[in-house]
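Aim 2 progress update. The chain analyzed this quarter is reproduced below.
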Amino acid sequence: MLSRRRRLIGVASPAATELRRAFRSEAALEAIRAHSKDADGPAHLALYNYPTFARRRPLPPPPPPTPPPGDFEGAGFQTCYLLDFIGPNNFALELSRFIPSVIAFDHRRSTLARIPHLGRCPSNLELNIDTTKSSARATFDYFSRNLAEIKSDSDMCEKLLDQEDEERVFNVLKYIEDADLRQWKLPNAKEFQTALRDERAKLNCITNPLVFEQQLDVCNLLSRGKSLAHDRFEAAGKLIHKPFRIHLGRGLHGECLAIRADGNSKLSHEIGLELSKMSTAAGLRPIGAVVFMQRGLLKICLRTTDSSTNTAEIAKAYGGGGKPSSSSFALRMDEFNAWISVKHGPTF
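Predicted structure tokens:
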């Protein structure tokens, strides 16, 4: 874990255009602007990774002007919490110039690698980077610990949640942490993540004012996740028509079944897994290749249901990456055409 409260110097301010792309919601920014006119408003601000901020996601350009951190000056916030991110470039540093206390939480190794380049942090900027604990768990522990130090009129320690809710939230946090740290040790963890992804559209306090009253429950999410996964696999099965053989790396990595999935890339994972089974049954490598056009190149998504097969080795050879069971890379059309097996043609 890294927790820093030191001075940061010698770092250039991020470009205004990059800050504009970093903010996801103009409505959220309007709420921040409005607070400066509301003397009775809250003294604390929380910015969370989704949907306030988005990284590595294609975003439509928000309507100008999007304020830089300087627009927080005079807004009356005493503390700003950055949950599950520290912002682009030196956003957290810039923010600490205008808000008395900035506290950030993140668990990513990529964030940890950025810290040495930042220099020394000011005393009012606290970076809590712990790669052994999810940001959600770290945030919950932080507020629980701080609240426990406060005693009520009855001289009893305050708690964030009652016993029943605490157990429910703790179970949800365990599953979130299992995925955030890429452990996948808990039962039906994939189904949980499927349902949680489906909930993300509701995790927006602007479009969903009741977001903080929602109660996530592991059992309900697992049930929904299994249902959603079944529906997705069923939809994927209907899209698999006449898969064809390809020579992976012009035959260097063997042969497998592939299919073009233009317009259905959101189901590439499920299609790939089904193709992997079909490829095994056809006596080929247990890999399914889902191919679709993306930004002028062919995106090749490889999936396997065989634990001894490493698709990432193939992807890395062509500038891509991933994990053994799931990887992807981009390929030029002429190169992909050289992979297609004209000799065998369609298999089914």
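Residues 1-24, 51-67, 344-348 have pLDDT under 50 and may be disordered. The chain has eleven helices and eleven strands. These observations will guide the mutagenesis experiments scheduled for the next reporting period.
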